[in-house]
Every structure is written in structure tokens, then in C-alpha cells.
Write a structure and sequence with these properties.
The complex is a heterodimer of chains A (about 500) and B (about 325). Chain A folds into 2 domains: about 5-240, 3-Layer(aba) Sandwich (Rossmann fold); about 245-495, Rossmann fold (3-Layer(aba) Sandwich). Chain A is globular. In chain A, the strands form 5 sheets. Chain A has a 6-stranded mixed beta sheet with strand order 6-9-10-3-11-12, with helices on both faces. Chain A has helices spanning about 45-50, 75-80, 100, 115-130, 145-155, 175-190, 200-210, 230-240, 295-300, 325-330, 340, 350-355, 370-385, 400-410, 430-445, 455-465, 485-495; strands at about 5-15, 20-30, 35-40, 60-65, 70, 85, 110, 115, 165, 195-200, 210-215, 220-225, 255-265, 270-280, 280-285, 310-315, 315, 330-335, 420, 450-455, 465-470, 475-480. Chain A has about 500 residues and is α/β, with parallel strands linked by helices. In chain B, the strands form 2 sheets. A two-stranded antiparallel sheet of chain B has the order 1-4. A two-stranded antiparallel sheet of chain B has the order 2-3. Chain B is globular. Chain B is mostly helical and about 325 residues long. Chain B has one domain (about 10-325): ABC transporter involved in vitamin B12 uptake, BtuC (Orthogonal Bundle), CATH 1.10.3470. Chain B has helices at about 5-35, 45-50, 55-70, 75-90, 95-120, 125-145, 155-160, 170-190, 190-200, 200-205, 210-240, 250-260, 270-290, 295-325, and strands spanning about 150, 165, 170, 240. The model of chain B is unreliable at about 1-10 and about 320-325 (pLDDT under 50). The chains are: A alpha/beta (about 500), B mainly alpha (about 325). At the A-B interface, α10 of A face α1, α9 and α10 of B.
Chain lengths: ~500, ~325
Amino acid sequence: MSAAELLRMEGISKSFPGVKALRGVSLRLDQGEVLGVCGENGAGKSTLMKILSGIYQAETGEIRFAGQPVKISSPRHAEGLGIAIVHQELNLVPHLTVAENILMGRIPSRMGIVSKSAMFRRAAELLAEIGFDLNPHAAARDLGIGQQQAVELVKSLSTEARIVIMDEPTAALSPDEADKLFEVIERLRHRGIGIIYISHRLEEVMAITDRIVVLRDGEMVGERKTTDTTIPEIVNLMVGRKVENLFDHESTVRSEVLLEVQGLSRDGRVYDVSFSLRRGEVVGIAGLMGSGRTELLEAIYGAAPRSAGKVRVAGDQVAAASPYDAISKGMVFLPEDRKTQALMLSQSIRKNITLPILSRLKGLFGTVAVGREMSLVEDLSRQLKVKAPSSETVVQGLSGGNQQKVVLAKWIGTKPKVLLLDEPTRGIDVGAKAEIYELIRRLAADGAGVVLVSSELPEVLGLSDRVLVMNKGRVAAEFDRADATPDSVMLAATR
Amino acid sequence: MSSREIGARQISAKAYLRRLGAFTGLILLCAGLAFATPVFLTVNNLLNVLRQVSVISLIGLGETFVILSGGIDLSVGSMLGLTGIVTALTARSGAGFATAALTGVLAAGLMGLVNGLVHTLGRLPSFITTLGTMAVARGLAYVLSKGVPISGFPGGFKVLGQGYFLGIPVPVIVVLIMALICSFVLTGTVFGRYVYAIGSNERAVKLTGIRVNLYKNLIFVASGLLTGVAALIALGRLQSAHPTSGSGYELNAIAAVVIGGASLSGGEGGPWGTILGALIMGVIENGLTLLNVNAFWQQVVIGSVIILAVLVDRLSRAERTDAIVK
């Protein structure tokens, strides 16, 4: 295999407000090489690929493409250079044909009129070239997910690509379809195309790549020839030795069971999940994005319908798909996206906090007992250290951390028995994070039960008394606090 | 205190300013007309304007509930027509004023409930639901009346539509009472909080365990009941029930709500804004008539005012977004 260098990225850095996403990352890709890029969620893989495909610009560092220094200024520029990206999510237009989707933006035409025969011929050529047996006349919406992924792939390759970036390409594929994709990768490699392959599925990465680089917290922490390494070594590099004792806590678990989940399923997303949560316990749910963590919490709470299974809070069965019933039994849910699912952005802190308990604040003629409401809001705001000029401040203008505290205050005001927290610290600053960690442990110490979902492994491991690992919609492993190490959890999540 | 937090405070100040904006507009309008024509600022004429806007004000109050919750009710105009016919038929079958009036209002409430049930159980957008019931109600009004106006009612209706109490027209008093009740319900009660909450972020409210569907039904019933009251006044004023009565009123009612500062996406606005909106439209119409402007041109002016009002609203909203970014 020729070792001609295709791409070199040197000392790439990029920051976003409050986060250093990449710190001096360097990367090399040769012709006909398949390079695996691994790392946890948020390690910087996507940012790096977005810089390469022109969506972001690096702050420092140099990119050399085929030996020439380049500044990739836009996605169009990247495409012009021959850098194609196959996105994780599909971007096809459902009611257009395969041919139209493949050639989108480059449809052969004469004087503005589409020449259909040329279009279908060209699409058929491209499909044959890569070896996909697909009808160019078929409508995209009639294709299976795997076939759609194939169209997406052909589409990106039709731009005379020299580098192809694949971001979790097998996430939606069946094993057969994935094998087909690997064949395509093999063919591309023989044509001298360089491939950057991003995946959480380490077995795949081991099977098809030549070399693997590992990112962690925006830094490149390791580079190995695939033949010289093992999955445990890669996992080790991915998680590092970074779980600090910052989270050290006494166990407050008592014997009484607060939440019982039995055989819970949700069509196509969650399969047969059972577990229980005790008073004073924090159960962490780890897993990769798309492993069904959020979907599980939604089904437990009733934010989404479940197809099978039972949920009991302190012995009482909770009706399916009824947040109303969940809350009246003492179970609350902090959703992943606070802006669209938890807050009324145009309303005051006070009105957001008391929304779930208004019926308890009812006075004469259905009025809100404003005096009681005010003192309650003041109490909760103080307890959670919400920073705002007053409780009449509109939530929209608050920082992410303060917004999240408002959501937590709203739930704590209901005196819940069980809290389901989905990514409670997403997108908030370090100070507020620490306060939320403290709060979670305090709630447990005071006798509540907490189910904690987080993409940040140290958070899950540090706060939980027990860790469930989800993988492809199932609970793949369960660890006690003592046995839950980053390596063991990551291994169970990626298997 | 960071600049961000100051921005948040400015927002609520702006919201008050916006409400004041409509009020200032009305004052300026009245001042201008007072100069342009001596007739405008007479007690008689002003009471006349108030009486004329009473029906739209009442429907508008009902529409306010729906719009605040992020929905829309297009059926109110037809509902007014159908309620008039139902009331008239009840009265003609020998019922007294109270029975006929109550039947009419309850029938309107029931129509509101139908809107609510179709919207929530059928999961249809309120626009589609009420577009359908708008045609259904109008059709039923024709069917029940066989297409002919019905007249001959108990004297109570005349009092309701044309009477005076302490020198003030009865319809004006009814509007005032209803506006006070709506204001109390919307700003003081738990139900009112839910109305604003649903309009602010329905998904979040649902996930907060509030029975959104139940409250949406109540909201449509409120819209129906207020339209029912409006129908009684319309009936009393004309002393006859026409199956065509109320055609196009839904648009005037929506216009009143919007001119009054409500956001069509929900969560912002209030009953007094709606009353202001109805008054602004009424004053313009009255002024143009006094100035002998051709009735066709009046429509052009009213339409432009609606656009202008929402445009001003949009601009002040853009400023608010700036305030947050800064």
C-alpha cells in the first residue's frame, strides 16, 4: 500500500465559550488508509471533523492537504478539495428519487431544464462504481435505513472525494448492511482514498482500520497501529485515569424500595429493562448516545408510551404515558433539553418554580395564594442558590446553570420521592455543576431516590451507588459502586 | 449583577411598555379625532362606540383565552350565529327570557366543548378543528332557521341589547363585568396560570404533570360561553336572529386580541389588551364614518392598522432579543 501522505493536521486548537474543545491536536492520514478515531462523547471528535469539513475554523494550527497548506473556509471549499463527510444522521429528501438525492445540487441540466436521462445514467454509474445494487428511480422514502445510508455514501463519493469521513456509519445498520459497508470501505481503500472512521463500536474499529487515534477532553492521548493494540487498551486511553475523589460520599442507601421497574420495553428503543431503586440511593445509567438511556427515563416517567412492563413508585403502580400520575405518586423527571422540555422561557422564575404545585397553593375561588407562593419560591431559590435579581426575573435571560437550578427548584418544591435526572449538568459551568452534584447527594441523604443519566462517565461513577450500563436498548451490565471502573463500564457500553 | 440579568429585567419593563403602546395609540387616535370633528368627543358618540364594540369585545375576550394558550378559535363568528338561532327558537317555543338566554349560553359552551374535544382527542391543530366547526355551526344555523331570520322575543333581550343602566348602555356594563371576571381568572387563579403556561411551552407543561388536555377543553368552553353572551347582546340589539349573523367576526376578534399585544404563539397578552384592541378598531371605524370616509376605504384603513400594530409589536420583540444577547 502506498504511504503517500494525504492529510496532515498540526496543532489544531478550537474553543467555544467556556470550553476548550480541542488543544493542539495533530493527525495524519495516508492514501488508502483507514484511520479510526475514538473517544468518549465530548472528547472532541466531532469538532475535529467539523474543522476538517469546513464547518468550523481552527484557532491555531495548520492543515496540509496533499502537501499543500490550506485553510478550509467552508463546507463547499472542503468539498472542492475532495473531503466528503457521511453524516451520522440522514439528510435525504424523502419524496425525491435516489438519483436526484445523489446528484442534489449537481443535477445535469440543459438551459435550466433537467435532463432526466443523463441524470439517471450518471446515478446508475455512480452506484455501480461503488457496487450498490439500488434502483436510481426509487423514491428515497421507500428505502430501508441501510439503503438510505448507502445513498448518502454514494452522494458524498460522487464529489470526487479523496478523503471520506464516516461518523458512526453503522449506527443504524443491520449486521448484513454493515458488512456491505465494510466491503465498500475496502474498495475505496484500494482506490487510494483515505478514510477517517469514527465509531463507538470498537470491534468494528479493530476489524477495519489500519491505525487508531484516541481523543480525550480535546487532546490526542494516543495513537496505535491497529494490529498492535487491543480493545481494553483503547478503552483505557479513552477514559483515562481521571475519576477524581471529588465525588467521594458516604452511602446513604436504606432498605425501602422506592422505584421498581419491571420488564419495561418501548418499541424499537428499550427492551425488557428491570431494576429497582432504594431510598437514599443514586442509580447511575451509563451508555453511549443512542443506547436508550433517555428513552428509558421517558418511558419510566410516562413522557413516552411504553409497550410492555410495569413501574411502581413506593409500591403504587404508575399509569403508562401519564406524567400527571407519575408526579402525583412522587416521581419527577428532569429532561435532557431544559429549554424545550422543562422551562417556560418567557415567564418568571416564580411562575416556573410553582407550576407543578399550583394546585396545592389554591385558595378561595381557585386563586393562587400568592403570599405562600412567594415565600416558597424565596425558600427554594435560596436553597438552590439561583442567581437572579429577583424571582420575577424572566428565565430566558439566565445562564444555563441558573436555568437548570430553576428546573431543579421546581421539582424539589414537589417534595419528590424519586427523581429521574437526564443529563442534569449538560451545558452548564463548572461551579453550577459542583452545586448540582452536591444537591443530588443531599437529596439522596434526605431519603429520595435518584436515577441519574449522564454522558459524562466521571459524573455517573462519582455520584452513583450503583451503575447500570445500557447498550442497544438493553441493560448490558450492572455494577456496584466498588466494581464500577471507567474501563469496565466503557467496555460494557461499547461491546 | 451581570448585564445579562439586567437584560432580563428590561424584558418585563418592555412588556408593560408594549401594553402602554396600544393605550397611547388609542389616546392619540381620540385626540386627533376630537380635533378633526366636534361630534367625536360627545357623550352620545362615545357611548355609541362602546356599544358598537361590545359584541367584538366579548368574543375577543373568549378568543384571548384560546390565543394565550397558543391556539386559535375560528368558529366564534358562526357560533354567534348559531347561538342566536338556538336562543330565538327556545324563546319562540314559549320559554321566558332567563330560560332562553341560559339555553343559548350553554349551547355555545357546548359548542366550545366540541371544539376542545375534537382538538385534544383527535389531536388536530385548533386551526383545522375550528375551521371545520366554523362551517358546521354556520350550516346548522341555516338548517335550524330554514334560512330565515327569526324575530319576536321576551322584553329582556331588548333591555340586554338596547337598555341603559345609570345612563350607561347595558352591553357596555356586560363587557365591563366580563372583562373583570376574565382578568381575575387569567391573572389570579390557578386555571389562568395554566392558560399562560400552556401557551408558553406546552411540552414542558405536559411533562410537569399538568393535564393539558383538560385545561384546553376548559379554554374552548370559556371561548364558547363568552361568545354565547355576545350572541345574546347581538340578538337584543337587532331584535332578530339571522343565520348569517356573526360572519367574519372571528377575524375582528382575533385582530382585537393581536392589536392588544397578544402573541399568536401564546403566553403573552391579556383581557384588557383585547378590550383596547377592540376599542382602537371601533374608534377608527367611528372616526372614519364621522369624517364621511367611504365605507370601502374604512376596511383598507382597519386592515392596515392590524398590520401596523403587529409590526410595532414585532419590532419591540426584536429589541427584546437584542437585550438578551447583550
